[in-house]
Each structure stands twice: as structure tokens, then as C-alpha cells.
What we know:
The protein is 30% helix and 26% strand. It is built from two helices and five strands. The chain has a five-stranded antiparallel sheet. A hairpin with a 4-residue loop joins strand 3 (41-46) and strand 4. The mean pLDDT is 82. Pfam families: DUF3567 (PF12091).
Amino acid sequence: MQMLYDSDSFVVVHMLPDAVEQQETPLNDTAPPTPQLARHGFEIVDKRSGKEVYLDGSWAEMFQQQILAWQRETPTQEEVEDALDRYAGLAQNPVVMH
């Protein structure tokens, strides 16, 4: 877990997958292989509403592209907050414990 952004209105955390070691499977083993898909996601907490949204899969990939663009372009805090506010519109889950 890596904190990416923290302001009076938002917190953004990058959830990194745990490293998964590949296990050698004997050729005569009939058990199905264990899934090895490592995924990451982003949690965006809207402190104003007390709700959070977790971006996974294609949403996480789109948000990763947004972060890379911010690194290249160095936006103002207002521009970042406006973008996070659009994602926060997806938030349905109340923050129970953080």
C-alpha cells in the first residue's frame, strides 16, 4: 500500500499486490494450476462525503494513465482535485475504518 495523495478533501492510496511465487507443478499432477494474476488498484477516499471508491481492472489502468500524465504535466492542486472529484462520483461505500 502506498499513499499517493492526501489533502483536506481526498486521499488516494495505491494498493500493490503481494508478490506471488510460481510453484513448480509435476507433469503428472492433475490439480488445476493456482491463478497467478497479480492485480493492483487505487482507493480514492472523499473526506467530504465519507465515502470511498476502489478502482480495479480497467478503471485502475485508466487512473494509472492519469497519474502518469500528472507526473509529466505537473497540474495544479485544483486540477488534481477536480479529477478526483469526478472519480469520487462513483463512490458508494461509506468509509467504516481507515
